[in-house]
Amino acid sequence: MVQMSLQRSAAMSPRCSLYHSMHHVGGARRRLASCRSQSSCFAYSARPSPIVLKTDSAVDPSEPKNFDSSSSASRSGPYSATCHPSGTTGVLGASSTSSLRFLEKLVCWSTRNGEEAPPFVICNDPLVKKELLSSGNNLASDCGIAIGKLRQKRLFLEQSGACCIVMPCQFLHAWHDEISQGCSVPFLHVGDCVVKELKAANLKPVEYGSNVRVGILSTDNTLAMNCYLNKLENQGFEVLCPDKASMEHTVLPSVDAFRKGDMEGARNLLRVSLQVLLVRAVNTIILASDDLVGILPDDDPLLKKCIDPLDALVSEAIICTRTL
What we know:
By secondary structure, the chain is of the alpha/beta class. 36% of the residues lie in helices and 12% in strands.
């Protein structure tokens, strides 16, 4: 657990831009089948999703309202610059892969104009995710010990001077309410950040007379619903998810093939999963699982219809750290 500020990295693409609406989702090109290992090396694209737009707004997830520049998409209320002059981002992680992707994007996007990246404090513990997984995705008392550990790590980030806290691992956001309870600084929710940018994009329905449809592709529909469904529907979006047959025959086998190193099989299955949603006239598809990001190559045209939620989280974190 360290605090640091990174300079611009020469390895990062100079074309990356925080508010560029034409770039597609950045894929995490994972070369090894052991993608869950902390020691694995990955090459990431820091380019944002197609819908990553500049906004001066915030959302209270318990009561949707118009955004404003005085606060960020969080559970914990407006950010007070007088309490946290450093503009430090607190990163609470349970996956080395997603934490690294977040930090690379944070540094690349925040330094695009020669500015220095904001300092950050990171606390990453993959064992906590394993404990939550062992509970069988139970959102109740079985997760109490793991949730308690995450609250302690969150408190460490608060005491370290973080002006906002993020969780790059989408899996953890199913317990966002429990982890963020009592937090003294904005604790960003990935669902709020995604919804904020979808609203700012002012999307038009693909089919005349229907609402804007958003697809959610995840390896666990229950957790995906807890993270995104209510937030999207409260803002007027129609939400579509793969049915049971699609999950069993394309989505989950795609991840399984990827983990076994069968890239061609994984990509073909994921393309089928995306097409199944696209033919149902969805405007865009949220890749609501870290396992799905990085399977397709960066130049795959289907990614132009996809959103990497981490992009929205990075964008909101930068806004929060610079609202001084």
